[in-house]
Amino acid sequence: MARESTLRFGAQTDEVTSLLRIVNMVRTGEASTRPEIGRVTGLGRGVVTQRVDHAIEMGYLEDGEFGASSGGRAPRTLRFRGDRGRIVVCALGALHIHIGVAMLEGDVIDQNHRTWDIARGPAETLDTALAMVDELLARTPDVPVWGIAVGVPGPVDFETGRPVAPPIMPGWNGFDVRRRFEQKYEAPVWVDNDVNLLAFGERARRGDDHIDLIYCKIGSGIGAGLLSQGRIHRGVNGAAGDIGHVRVPESTAICRCGKIGCLEAVAGGWALVREAEAAIAGGATGYLAKRGADGEALTPEAITLAAEDGDAVAIALLQRSARVVGESIAALVNMFNPGFIVIGGAMAGAGEIYLAEVRQRVYELSLPLATRDLSITPSANDIREPLRGGVEMVREQLFDITFPRWFGDGRPSISGVLAAS
Q: Crossing angle for the helix pair 14-28 and 45-58, nearest 10 degrees?
């Protein structure tokens, strides 16, 4: 009982510390047998056996197959019990809802997607999202939900899980997104900006937990997710990376946030649609004009398709957007010195028409040392990116950040994870 109490309340005894490390070593693949654990940790054989047996008893680990022999008896491998819980991701975009479910190992095992306007408000949007989650949970293994990630297309106070004055989300300011999911699923919930989830997804795709990377999403709006040595940089209040509202010199365009001259109001997808409509009204011809004449709505995606078709208006709009976006990214490069910049969102769909302009401005305006080892690439353009990123974020929160708080309980709880943060 004394040992259970010590574990339950997170006291960092040598036993707790070594147990946490052993479970995470097996979970991440750093070690997969008892002898490997002993070599990496320096713990004696008897101590390793005791710790591993305790982790198995608590339900975190299990014995697997026999491993390769190095001359003596073949050691039995160990596996992390990734089947004990599920992770749910709800990625809300400006015009869609994307839901995914993963087991604790991290692979998304089922997903659902539908078109949706985030401007319909939090009540209707979350009712729809929760119904979609229920549908997926009914189709996946019936084990507890251990954690939930919610991504939203606007600034978020990460500590409270509440959007803060999101320009394209009327009615969402200060709304307690986290509480709706906690009440329904009785699991810890983390709410983050959608671009941060994309940055997490890129980290997982590259398999580099110490990467320095900027993920720039240039879609209807503009934002950036910043990874420093593999850790997301949110800033004090979660506003880091919100480059969409950096001022563009000499611009007088009115932004959706109410300010004048924001990057998003000049180079974002909605701004390009506005400019395309004005050009067509002024007599421009080509793919976009024909689309408008046929009664089809102009969208950022339509502009990228038109550029690929050689539409002069679309090409000019994309190149102008890329130039001013490249200027803002160059400022980030000089301050942040990343190894990688990934361009995602609808504008990235234009390929080299867009990327070439971004690269040119970044290399022109950044310090030589800051760009010496810099790679600027398009995103994988995979609809599952935010889902993988959300799973990665939850796994980091559960096992790298809050694990000592709930380890002794055998599974996370709202009070054991978030109340102590």
A: 70
